[in-house]
Amino acid sequence: MQKVRVPITVDPVKSAGKQLSYIGLVPGEALARLQELLVEPCPDVDTSLFFEVDEQGIKRIRGDSQVTVQASCERCGDTMTVPLQCTFIYAPVTKRQKATDMPEGYESVELDELGEVNLHALVEDELILAMPVVVKHDERECRVDSNAMQWGDIEDSPEAKGNPFAVLQELKRK
Q1: Is 128 helix (H, G, I), strand (E, B) or coil?
Q2: What is the H or E stretch that residue 62 is in?
Q3: Beta-bridge partner residues of 26
Q4: How far apart, in whole angstroms, are the C-alpha atoms of residue 71 and residue 89?
Q5: Are the CB atoms for 21 and 43 separated by under 8 Å?
Q6: What pLDDT, in 10s, does the model give residues 9-68?
Q7: Global pTM exceeds 0.90
Q8: Strand 9-10 to strand 4-5: parallel, antiparallel, or no bridges (unpaired)?
Q9: What are the distances in angstroms from CA 159 to CA 56, 94, 152, 155, 156?
Q10: Among 3, 41, 60, 132, which one is most buried in terms of CB atoms within 10 A?
Q11: DSSP assignment of 146-164, as one string?
């Protein structure tokens, strides 16, 4: 079965009423913010999205995405492979569905002026959150030994600093 591109925007309320699902690709070139964190162009992202109505009658977008990207190791600077995977549940905020009424595992999402949500931006946000805070090789695989790292020289004795309030004391005496 050939994978198709996931649409950019959809109406999540109508899609949930119709129980629609999209299993396809989000183009990597559409993910500009994620691309800033990478050293090579982002490949297309495998994505599955399911529009549903849960047991409480809340319309939701349930999905998962995975992609393998190339990022720069913060320790040695070499390129490394980083697998990204995320699972998410969003519920659109409408007049009937308030953000405060959402269950704990749901993330609320605002609709645009046309009542639609940008699916590519949702997937991009989740992939950015799935990125490691500090991208680095395992210590055994990195060419820079973490014990040999040096961040600067420490002075033996701190210099005597002048009192910053000395000027105020001189003014007080006058």
Answers
A1: helix
A2: strand 59-72
A3: 45
A4: 27
A5: no
A6: 999 989 988 999 999 999 999 999 999 999 999 999 999 999 999 888 888 999 999 999
A7: no
A8: unpaired
A9: 67, 62, 17, 9, 9
A10: 60
A11: GGG----PPPSSPPPPPPT
Beta bridge mates, 85: 66
DSSP string, 78-102: -EEEEEEEEEEEEEE--SSS-GGGS
Nearby residues of 10 by Cβ (< 8 Å), 6 or more positions away: 20, 51, 116, 117, 119
CA distances from 161 to 75, 84, 164, 166, 172 (A): 35, 50, 9, 12, 21
CA–CA gap between residue 118 and residue 116 (Å, rounded) = 7
Distance CA 35, CA 41 (A): 7
Proportion of the chain in helix, strand, coil states, percent, rounded to 5: 20, 30, 50
Contact 115, 95 (CB under 8 A): no
CA 65 to mean position of chain CA atoms: 12
Burial class (CB in 10 A: 0-12, 13-18, 19+), 43: middle
Residue owning tokens 């308030």: 98
Which neighbouring-strand residues pair with 78? none
Q: In this predicted model, what pLDDT tens digit does every residue of 118-169 receive, in sequence order?
A: 999 999 999 999 999 988 887 777 777 656 666 666 666 656 667 778 888 8
